[in-house]
């Protein structure tokens, strides 16, 4: 059974580690991440952007696919199916479709509207036993058409949203979706510390988790980050392993072109990377 993320995130916050929220794009991604979580004995969140859900033929298809794969693989660790950067309509549709966690991203509205809509969505999610994440301050870069220049979240705005009863809060601290540019200034730990202080220990979410140096990840976790979103890094791993397979001519050896063979190196690379990140974030072994 898929679960709400509230318990796993609260435990991570108390235990000073973080849960990885890994974006899925298709069946291979789902299988690889679930296999990694089971092997690492780690709770896990599967993130689904609205663009990826559209690609996978809609929210209901995603719910059915993930539930069936989860049961068929005999997964025993806690797994939450989470909408990533949900719109107002998208979050409502996912709550209906059977997601066990949603993010409502109202960061592109003015704050009064973000507050009003977040409040409504928190009540709706909680009425169904679903965990919910909201966002204050844009995360830099572009993900599936959601574009933001990136900004440092206002601690007072974070406090106001935290007090609505959101389960975990995404706050901009200089993080960026996609590859980090060479001149990236790094995470703002001063701002992260201020946000954690005024939000009364609310679990915080670090978006743009691909390519952040290990010491910054460790420091962010020590300052209250309990969920780390990773998308780009798994795409790069998949692409590199697939490219290698083809460049070595393996698709031309025997039936190397069989999609189950062609996609396997990429899927194996995703699994290995997810296990490594679960060890890095400290969530490995926490579902034993
Ligand atoms: P990256 O693609 O940079 O890992 O960001 C993922 C993310 O934050 C999903 O919301």
Distance, first to last CA:
17 Å
Segments where pLDDT lies below 50 for 5+ residues?
none
Q: Share of helix among residues?
A: 40-55%
Q: Could you tell me the number of beta strands?
A: 10
> Radius of gyration over alpha carbons?
18 Å
Element-level helix/strand string: HEHEHHEHEHEEEHEHEHEHHH
Mean pLDDT: 95
Count of helical regions: 12
Cross-sheet strand order for the largest sheet: 1-2-3-4-5-8-9-10
Beta-strand residue fraction: 15-25%
Q: What shape does the CA trace take?
A: globular
Q: Which small-molecule species are bound to the chains here?
A: 1,3-dihydroxyacetonephosphate
Secondary-structure-derived class: alpha/beta
| Major sheet attributes | 8 strands, parallel, barrel
Task: Describe this protein's structure.
With 288 residues, the chain is of the alpha/beta class. Helix content is 47%, strand content 17%. The strands form 2 sheets. The protein has an 8-stranded parallel β-barrel with strand order 1-2-3-4-5-8-9-10, surrounded by 9 helices. The longest helix has 18 residues, at 264-281. The protein is globular, with a radius of gyration of 18 Å. The model has no long low-confidence stretch (mean pLDDT 95). Bound molecules: 1,3-dihydroxyacetonephosphate. 1,3-dihydroxyacetonephosphate (13P) is lined by residues 23, 47, 84-85, 143, 177-178, 207-210, 229-233.
